[in-house]
TrEMBL record:
<dbReference type="InterPro" id="IPR052779">
    <property type="entry name" value="WDR62"/>
</dbReference>
<protein>
    <submittedName>
        <fullName>WD repeat domain 62</fullName>
    </submittedName>
</protein>
<feature type="domain" description="Anaphase-promoting complex subunit 4-like WD40">
    <location>
        <begin position="53"/>
        <end position="133"/>
    </location>
</feature>
<dbReference type="InterPro" id="IPR015943">
    <property type="entry name" value="WD40/YVTN_repeat-like_dom_sf"/>
</dbReference>
<dbReference type="InterPro" id="IPR001680">
    <property type="entry name" value="WD40_rpt"/>
</dbReference>
<dbReference type="Pfam" id="PF12894">
    <property type="entry name" value="ANAPC4_WD40"/>
</dbReference>
<dbReference type="InterPro" id="IPR011047">
    <property type="entry name" value="Quinoprotein_ADH-like_sf"/>
</dbReference>
<dbReference type="InterPro" id="IPR024977">
    <property type="entry name" value="Apc4-like_WD40_dom"/>
</dbReference>
Length: 145
């Protein structure tokens, strides 16, 4: 199985790299580069490892194919009109993803349709981490509060 590395950042770029064996070890060679128009804060890969979801400053979630770097979907990751998406996490079943926004909201979104199925407020500070449990029944969130 090929080893792949995908990275994104405030430079608005997503880099897709594949590992290649050489006499002195593994080297990562860039296979695709995506230049976005917005800052990228977080990413997560789905269970099939075919898609990567990216949390964007413009409150959208962009989903890319990991093999060719092409955007497959783009949908609203926060229902509000303020703030930026800070975190994204795909559930272990690959059915839903959760996002946190700098407006302190959390949204649960259908990974395939982009429909928001739940929106929550409750933290008094921004959410800095989140994770679905393995049975996909709970979403654990962490905040500075």
């Amino acid at each position: 199985r090929d080893i792949q590395m995908i990275s994104c950042g405030a430079d608005k770029s997503i880099y897709f790299r594949s590992a290649q064996r050489a006499s002195d070890g593994l080297h990562f060679v860039r296979t695709h580069h995506v230049a976005e128009k917005t800052t990228l804060y977080d990413m997560d890969i789905d269970i099939t490892q075919k898609y990567v979801a990216v949390a964007c400053q413009d409150r959208n979630v962009r989903v890319y194919n990991t093999m060719n770097g092409k955007q497959k979907k783009c949908y609203k990751g926060s229902q509000g009109d303020e703030g930026s998406l800070l975190k994204v996490h795909v559930d272990p079943s690959g059915t839903f993803l959760a996002t946190s926004c700098s407006d302190k909201s959390i949204s649960v979104i259908d990974f395939y349709s982009g429909e928001c199925v739940a929106k929550m407020f409750g933290h008094s500070e921004i959410v800095t981490g989140m994770k679905f449990t393995y049975d996909c029944r709970h979403l654990i969130t962490v905040s500075g509060d």
